[in-house]
Amino acid sequence: MIDELTKGPIQAVAKKSMASGKRVNRKNHSKFIQALSLIVFLILWQFFSAINAHFIWFNPQFFPSPMIVLHTTWDYLLDGTLIQAIGASVIRVLLGFAFGSLVGVLLGIMMSQSRLSNDLISPVLNMLGPIPVFAFLPIFMIWFGISELSKVMLIAYATFLPVLTYTMDGIKNVNPTWIRSAMTLGATRYQIFTRVILRAALPNVFVGMRISLALAFGALIVAEMMGSSEGLGFIIVNARNWFKLDDMFMSCMLIGLLYTLFNYILLFLESVLFRWKKDGIQSAVER
Amino acid sequence: MPFVNVRNLFKSYGDAGKYVLNDVSFEINENEFVCVLGHSGCGKSTLLNLLAGFIKPDKGEISVNGQFVSKPSSQRGVVFQDHGLFPWYNILDNVAFGPKALKNKDAYRISKRLIKMVDLEGYEKVFPSSLSGGMAQRVGIARALATNPQLLLMDEPLGALDAMTREKMRIEILRIWKETKKTILFITHSIAEAVYLADRVIVLKEGSVCLDEKIEIERPRSVHAPQFMDYTKKFEKVLFEHDELVLD
């Protein structure tokens, strides 16, 4: 009988749990280093702003310390403005990102399945792709008004192109042996598409979504800076008029935090959906 | 009427006048274990792809159990060299893929029985990435058997395995063949493997059948038996000499 079988699944499970124990330790260690990096960053920031406040190399108001930014955040929190601003930004980015991703995936599927639609759409996308999303904002504002729609559409537009490209790429690069396997197992064309091609392309879709997320946040802030009366982008542009650098720093920090949170949610979803994946340097070498 | 009937098969890949398969004809009886032996590039994988229905011949025809082959079918199970398991499904779902696609209500019961047959009970919830090469290949065999095909096509299934695992897998494959009583066409470039496994060996050379030989050794076979050596030498002579030795 085969060696690995004589040992039995129990030993395999025991080995696995030891390996996963090691992995948990490494993960905790990694998280500690990451937290430490943020703490060091905040300490250095506090330190330089304190030195600047002492020697006055330039106006200390232009370089507020983290403590001042925290204080400002607290004030904003107390008067309710902050929750309102974060809420507005989150809703915009969620709607735009979800809509853009949906359109990107659907169009990617369509273009990868039909040569005609690919030939019709890809030249237009190749032309529009290199134009910075922000150039379209005034056009979107004229088309969709200064309402929420123009902002959500700009975010959706920023999102959809990378998602579309990565979806198409994922579908095109499906291992042909998987498709052949499914054919010999009696799967219909629809089953092959839904149970093999889409499943195989899904990790690529998520890569596209993570790339899009940064672009979506960029579009959100620009849209809020140009035509909005609330949101984190609006706080920045409004603070500029009053030289309120601490407001700007607060808004920037919150945008960074929100992006990190969204990125973590995507990474978490990936880790749940793609438990089966075991690639990359982590699985190449055990350290 | 033979179970598998391959008649005057020609196949080229665009090169004008150059055939990968050049007038290939042979028959396989029901429950027979046939090995197709040949060097790399001799056309043996092309032959398997034609039998599976993945590609179409330029000329000639193939029938299995009286039905002409025109496209892939669950009646012809394929075991691939790189196993081709779906990495996003666990072992149970991989094996159950075929029966589920065919709307078989007993999909999981059948799959569990086959997983037990290939000695992987307890690994149902494991993903393919956690399996060794030999284990993955046995899942591949179980998966191919799950739709109860009439013919099992095996494309160098042991090609990517180490020598030790290969030997063990040969015994496993013979056991599975005896248990399931399937007709098997097994592609290999290993002479010893062909002599060890097959009822009959078809030697392909430069796209043509140059030898079709019954292996008249009782099972279990020993690689050290004089008869085994005789067959090995015979196939070596055909494969490594320039003179064509056609006994058919």
From TrEMBL, chain A:
One Pfam assignment: BPD_transp_1
Predominant place of localization: membrane
InterPro entries recorded: MetI-like (IPR000515), MetI-like_sf (IPR035906)
This protein's record includes keyword Transcription regulation: no
Superkingdom classification of source: Bacteria
Membrane topology annotation: Multi-pass membrane protein
Chain ranges passing through the membrane: 32-57, 82-112, 124-146, 152-171, 192-223, 248-269
Keywords carried by this UniProt record: Cell membrane, Membrane, Transmembrane, Transmembrane helix, Transport
Domain ABC transmembrane type-1: 86-270
SUPFAM superfamilies in the record: MetI-like (SSF161098)
Subcellular locations according to the entry: Cell membrane
Family: Belongs to the binding-protein-dependent transport system permease family.
Name under which the protein is recorded: ABC transporter permease
Lineage: Bacteria, Bacillati, Bacillota, Bacilli, Bacillales
TrEMBL record, chain B:
The organism of origin for this protein: Sporolactobacillus shoreicorticis
SMART domains per the UniProt record, alphabetical: AAA
PANTHER family: ALIPHATIC SULFONATES IMPORT ATP-BINDING PROTEIN SSUB (PTHR42788:SF13), TAURINE IMPORT ATP-BINDING PROTEIN-RELATED (PTHR42788)
Record-given protein name: ABC transporter ATP-binding protein
Superkingdom: Bacteria
Keywords, comma-separated and alphabetical: ATP-binding, Nucleotide-binding, Transport
InterPro entries from the UniProt entry: AAA+_ATPase, ABC_transporter-like_ATP-bd, ABC_transporter-like_CS, ABC_transporter_ATP-bind, P-loop_NTPase
Keyword Nucleotide-binding: yes
Example of a GO MF term: ATP binding
ABC transporter domain location: 4-231
